[in-house]
Design a protein that fits this description.
single chain; 124 residues; mainly alpha; 4 helices; globular
Length: 124
């Protein structure tokens, strides 16, 4: 179980580092964003991240209906994914993409905070 948790946390770290770097590359209009590795690696990492999350939830018997903090993480994850696609693909202007990127980083921080505290409203 600890191995799966380590994989999950490691993939989360790799995912946010990759997203941060891709956001910086986006702001610099770098051609690196068009490289095959840059396009494929995030999908592999995020698939491992999601798979390990599901594995942990099943092993611990956690369901989003019984755990508000888990439901909050799932909803925040969907928001993060939406903002990420605007930031790196769908944003019409660089200003919109940068705003979405920054907002996605804040949502990711919220996800981590909820994971650590198990409190969806973070102390409220």
């Amino acid at each position: 179980m600890e191995l799966v948790k380590t994989i999950h946390v490691g993939c989360a770290l790799l995912s946010i580092i990759g997203f941060t770097v891709r956001g910086i590359l986006m702001m610099r209009d770098s051609v690196i964003l068009q490289m095959r590795f840059t396009k494929i690696a995030p999908h592999i990492i995020d698939t491992l991240l999601l798979g390990s999350a599901i594995w942990l939830a099943v092993q611990y018997g956690l369901g989003p209906g019984d755990n508000p903090w888990l439901m909050a993480k799932i909803i925040a994850l969907l928001v993060y994914i939406g903002l990420g696609t605007v930031a790196l693909k769908r944003g019409k202007t660089k200003q919109v993409r940068v705003f979405a990127w920054l907002a996605a980083l804040l949502v990711f921080a919220y996800i981590v905070a909820v994971a650590v505290t198990k409190m969806p409203l973070l102390g409220v």
